[in-house]
Amino acid sequence: MSRPSGTRARRTLLWVATHAVAVALAVMFLAPLVFMFLTAVMSDEQALSTALWPREWHWENFRRVFTGDMVRWTLNSSMYAGLSTAFMLVSSVPAAYALARFRFRGRNAALVVVISAMMLPPQVTMVPLYIVWSRFQLTGTLWPLIIPQLFGDAFSIFLLRQFLVTIPREYADAARVDGCGELRTMLRVVLPMARPALAAVALFQFFYCWNDYYGPLVYAKPEHWTLAIGVATFRAAHHVEWNLTMAATLLTIMPVLVVFFLAQRVFIQGVTLTGVKG
Questions:
Q1: Cβ partners under 8 Å of residue 90, min gap 6
Q2: pTM for this prediction
Q3: Top-confidence range, 57-61, 77-81, 169-173, 186-190
Q4: Interatomic CA distance for residues 64 and 245, integer angstroms
Q5: What is the per-residue pLDDT for 271?
Q6: In the chain, which ranges are continuous DSSP H helix?
Q7: How far is CA 6 from the centre of its chain?
Q8: Which of 105, 113, 233, 242 shows the smallest number of beta carbons within 10 Å?
Q9: pLDDT digits (tens, 9 = 90+) for 133-167
Q10: Is residue 220 classed as helix, strand or coil in its secondary structure?
Q11: Which among 38, 33, 40 has a CA at the least distance from the CA of 245?
């Protein structure tokens, strides 16, 4: 009986030794989430103490937080992230497809322009863009942040282009022989094989917009604030009620966590396969 137990112990030690770094990283990343959750269900008095485990579970803290302004901020963030992601895909996919599949004069120069746009900080163009949007009377809303996505996103175009060049041209050639036009070839043949890259750029864009603080702070009025700004003002208004602040923070990051875990496999596959061929 001692031999199986010794084998099991060796297997356990081998598993710990193999995954020690992964386990340490998982604990490091999960510890703040666990601390926020435990603080969020504490009472006001206990949240200000050194206690780590709640004596009573106050689930009503989430209901107290998710009312009024929090609902409006959530709707604004959902509109901003959802429309920006959709507009980015509509505009960036054709541009990336053209850079990856078409041979035309100036293609390399266009790719250099895209890469250069990735390196340009948004603060450099903020003032002239603000003046332009003010003349269209769109300042005070989120539309100055959403509409530019119809003109493409440099990072998304580059990432999609790097993935599309890895797809063999024989598939597109076979579709053209069968009578497909260029648009139908892109939609029916190439893009279905590029789903991992599409999911990767969509998640990148969604996460960026959901967490964006600088853009809404510059353009949006209070009634158009997103969760990033709303939670900051909520914390200022409830600076001693750490349980409510943690509950609001958890509600803010919960959609991002859910979306990431649902699309985790295809997201990692897209990031891994992108850039195999230049």
A1: 150
A2: 0.83
A3: 77-81
A4: 11
A5: 60
A6: 2-18, 20-40, 44-47, 60-65, 69-101, 107-118, 122-135, 143-146, 154-164, 169-177, 182-185, 191-193, 195-211, 214-219, 227-237, 242-262, 264-273
A7: 46
A8: 105
A9: 999 999 999 999 999 999 989 999 998 998 888 88
A10: strand
A11: 40
Contacts of 254 (CB under 8 A, 6+ apart): none
CA dihedral 18, 22, 28, 32 (to 10 degrees): -130
Q: Is 186 exposed, middle or buried (0-12, 13-18, 19+ CB in 10 A)?
A: buried
More confident residue, 138 or 173: 138
**Rg, C-alpha atoms of the chain:** 24
Cα angle: 83, vertex 84, 90; to 5 degrees: 90
Angle at 106 between CA 104 and CA 108, to 5 degrees: 100
Q: How many CB atoms lie within 10 A of CB 169?
A: 11
Q: If you count them, how many residues does the chain have?
A: 278
| Number of alpha carbons in the 13 Å side-chain half-sphere of residue 57 | 3
Q: Name the pLDDT band for 123 (thresholds 50, 70, 90).
A: confident
- Mean pLDDT score of the chain: 85
Biggest alpha carbon–alpha carbon distance for the chain: 82
Quick check: 183 and 74 in contact, CB under 8 A? no
Give whole-number Cα distances, 256 to 77, 135, 165, 209, 211, in Å: 11, 34, 30, 11, 9
Q: How far apart are CA 132 and CA 125, in angstroms?
A: 11
Q: Give the pLDDT confidence score for residue 190 in this predicted structure.
A: 87
- Secondary structure (DSSP) of 59-128: THHHHHHSSTHHHHHHHHHHHHHHHHHHHHHHHHHHHHHHHHH---TTHHHHHHHHHHHHTS-HHHHHHH
Residue with tokens 């076979």: 174
